[in-house]
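Aim 2, interim progress. The first record below pairs a target sequence with its C-alpha cells.
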Amino acid sequence: MVAAGMSDRWFLTPMRLPQARLQLFCLPYAGGGASAYRGWAAALGTGVEVNPVALPGRENRFGEPPGIDLPALSRAVATRADRPYAIYGHSLGARLGFEVIRSMRRAGLPLPLRFYVGGSRPPDVRDVGGLYDQISGVGDAEFLDRIVRGEALPAEVRAAPDLVELLLPVFRADFRWLDGYECAEEPPLPVPILAIVATDDPMVPVDQVRGWARHTSAGFTLRVLPGGGHLFLRERQQEVTELIRTDLDGAIRSAPSPAGYGTAASPGSDRATR
C-alpha cells in the first residue's frame, strides 16, 4: 500500500473535505494535468471532495520523468479513497480510470459508485488509421502537427518553441502509453458508466462512444453536448459539472457506509494494460 504522504503528490486537491460523503477522482487528458479540473470543487459543492490526479512530469511533479505508472496510480487512488467515490476521466484519463477500476476489482477493493468518461472511445476500440494511430513513432514536427489537428495542443502553443520544449516529452510519454495499450478481456464492470461527448469532437465519433455500454453490467448513459470539441470540458465546464453533480446526487443518496474503504489492501501489478 502507498503511504499517505507518498500518495499526496498524486493529487492537487483544492481542499480536503472530511465531512463530504463522496470523493471524485479526476484523471487528465494526454498532455494535461490536474489543473484541467480547476473550478470543479466550487461547482460540485462541499458534498463532494474533488481529487484531481497529478501525473508525473507536469505541474507539481514537473521534476519527475513523465510517464504512466498505472500500478502506482491505482495504489494512490486506493489509499486516498476513504469513503464512497466516483471517477471522471477525459480522453486518456478515461482509459486510465477504466484500468484503475479493474485493478481495484482484482484487489477486492470497493469500486466507485459511478464512472464518468469524457471524449473517449471505448477501451477496446483503437484509432486504426486515424490521426493518433501509432503517433509515438513519428518525428517531432509531424507529432506536433497531429496533436494540434486533434485539439490536444492549442495552435498558439505550437508556435512557442520554449513551451513546446517543455510539453513535448509529456505528450510523447502519454501517447507512447496509449500506443502500447491493449484492453485485456475481462468481465464488464459492475459500475454505472456515464459517457459525455461533444458533437464537434474531431477525434471521437458519438456512435463509437456508445460502445462503452458493453463494459458495464450496471447501466450505461450517454450525454451528447452540441458543438464543443475534443477538450470540451474547458469551455463547457458548467454543463459538464452540472451533469455530474445531478448524477452524483442520486449516487450519494444510495451510497453505502464508509466501512471497507481505506483498507490496507492495495491493487496488485498491472497485468492487463500493456
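The second target in this work package is listed in the same format:
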Amino acid sequence: MTYPFRQRRYFYYLSGVNEPDSCMTYDIESDLSTLYIAPITTQGVIWFGRGSTIEEAQD
C-alpha cells in the first residue's frame, strides 16, 4: 500500500515547501537559511508529478 506524501508541519512552517526529499539548514550567526530540494527528473514527474523549480521554491 502506498501512502501519499505529507510534509512534517514544522518543516513546512519554516520553509514553506511541500516537496519530498527536501532539507533546510539555518546558520544562526549569519542568519542565513539554505533550502535543498531534489532535482526534477522524468521518472519523478511520471510517478509523483512535477515538483517545485528553484525559482518556485524561492518564492
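DSSP finds three helices and two strands in the chain. This observation will shape the mutagenesis plan for the next reporting period.
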